[in-house]
Write a structure and sequence with these properties.
Rossmann fold, six-stranded mixed beta sheet, alpha/beta, globular, single chain
């Protein structure tokens, strides 16, 4: 794991102001007030159905605001042209479909679409951006491989590389570690932390693994029933009371032996029977 920055965030890139977002006119998240600070990794956490993915879609302008607004660098996100938004916000949705027969290079190259004009041709800048994205995602040696032949972790890195090729300062990722084993989860989260620390990207991600989020994220946002319950500016602020309230289950709190940050284990519903 990489170390956290000692400098507190000072600039909000995305701001939700009394934001309500949902589907078919029905709000799923309501009255959200939240700042996404530059140079931080912010994790959205909460039980299933709490509105994490809906809130992320609202930040990405995939779903229109039913109330309130999202502001990008102080201006209403809804007023920006689509191409401008695509040059600032890179989005990785949950479980994107795998294009059949597409190579890793071709998939990553799709991330250059915001920089392509109607008559423009593939440029050296496009080539360099794709090459850098492949290198950051440790996929340069697999550039010619069909995407469908990759392992789960490699495939997820390919999608992240596509988002990186957009060269956007803000990255929004919906469950980037879902269905991956522990080793691949760590590899993906190490990559995201490296993007924040070394490349000054701003990352917002929906995560299901609470303990992984505690070890990697700078800020934690807990949602429940479509509303924000807690915003923590450092993982050390998290305690069992918050976890039990949000997830409605008793937990045991421990400290990670390396980071010193909290780790939470669910309490067993019953004690195991003693063996004779």
């Amino acid at each position: 794991m990489t170390s956290r920055s000692a400098d507190p965030p000072t600039r909000s890139r995305l701001t939700a102001e009394a934001l309500s977002v949902g589907h078919g006119g029905q709000a799923v998240v309501q009255d959200i007030e939240l700042d996404i600070f530059e140079g931080c990794m912010t994790a959205l956490l909460g039980p299933n159905g709490s509105g994490k993915s809906t809130l992320l879609a609202g930040f990405a302008r995939l779903l229109p605001a039913l109330g309130g607004s999202v502001r990008l660098d102080g201006s209403d996100l809804a007023t920006f042209p689509t191409r401008h938004v695509a040059r600032v916000l890179g989005l990785l949705p949950q479980q994107p479909p795998v294009p059949e027969g597409l190579s890793v290079f071709d998939l990553v190259a799709r991330g250059r679409f915001p920089h392509q004009g109607f008559f423009s041709q593939w440029s050296r800048q496009d080539e360099a951006a794709v090459g850098e994205a492949l290198a950051l995602a440790a996929l340069a040696d697999l550039a010619d491989r069909p995407v469908e032949t990759l392992s789960g972790g490699q495939r997820q890195r390919a999608w992240i590389a596509m988002v990186l090729a957009q060269e956007t300062p803000l990255l929004l990722l919906d469950e980037p570690t879902t269905f991956l084993d522990a080793a691949h989860q760590v590899a993906i989260l190490d990559l995201l932390r490296d993007l924040v620390r070394r490349h000054r990207r701003t990352v917002v991600c929906v995560l299901h693994d609470l303990n992984m989020a505690l070890q990697y994220a700078d800020r934690l946002v807990f949602l429940k029933e479509g509303r924000i319950r807690h915003v923590l500016t450092h993982p050390s602020q998290c305690d069992g009371r918050i976890i039990e309230e949000v997830f409605e289950m008793p937990v045991v709190s421990l400290k990670h032996p390396q980071s010193g940050l909290p780790v939470f284990l669910p309490c067993a519903s019953r004690q195991p029977e003693a063996r004779p």
